[in-house]
Amino acid sequence: MDYQRIRRRLLFGAGAAGLLGAAGLSGAVSHAAPATPAAVEPDIDSTAEWGARPPSIANPVIWGVPDKLIVHHTVSANTADFSRGQAHAHAHWVQDLHMDDNGWRDSGYHFIVSRGGWITEGATGSLTALVAGDHFVQGIHTAGQNSQAIGIANEGAYHDGDEPTAAQWETLVTLCAYACERYAIPSSEIYGHMDFGSTLCPGIIHDRLPRLRGEVEAARGL
Ligand SMILES: [Zn+2]
Questions:
Q1: Which strands make up the sheet holding 119-121, listed edge to edge?
Q2: Residue 9 alpha carbon to ligand 1 centre in Å
Q3: The domain defined by 39-219 carries CATH number 3.30.930.10
Q4: Domain boundaries, the chain
Q5: The model's pTM
Q6: N- or C-end of the chain: fewer Cβ atoms within 10 A?
Q7: What's the 26 CA to ligand 1 centre distance in angstroms?
């Protein structure tokens, strides 16, 4: 953690500010996240864009930054519909499952990556928080980690031989890189649900975590 912050300070001090120009510096410099992220900001469809239900009670906000990302799969059907509409339909399916079947206040994840490579916001407020980089919504995705980890779910079931699509993987890398940048999380701090409990989640994606961490690190230009 300290290493990352020191490295950024060195980069910033080495003249990155001059190269990036005014646009890169328009944000608050006191921000927890770096003013000059190397990771690309992905398109994320907000809860308003996919028409989410409002949470049953306000989502608790935690001020400060999470210390890790935890990757999941949603165990939905491994659809061949790669459309944005399917990503939105799946986001509704997850939210309905979590609110109606589980009795939770909202979708338990912060973000979901569809098999077509679309990203939807999970719990309302997660996207605004991520862009700000100084707070996050309390998740409902991993026992014991919900007040310190961002939960990123992948549409589909990957515990039974199937694999995520190439588009899904690429988008997962991009989203993880961006989230790590905004919250100053080291790329090494990306885990799978099964690291923290007895579950098959996220299936084969867990086997690929070393690759994910490496690709996220590369996407960040680190
Ligand atoms: Zn999970």
A1: 119-121, 111-113, 149-154, 68-73, 190-192
A2: 35
A3: no
A4: 1-36, 39-219
A5: 0.84
A6: N
A7: 37
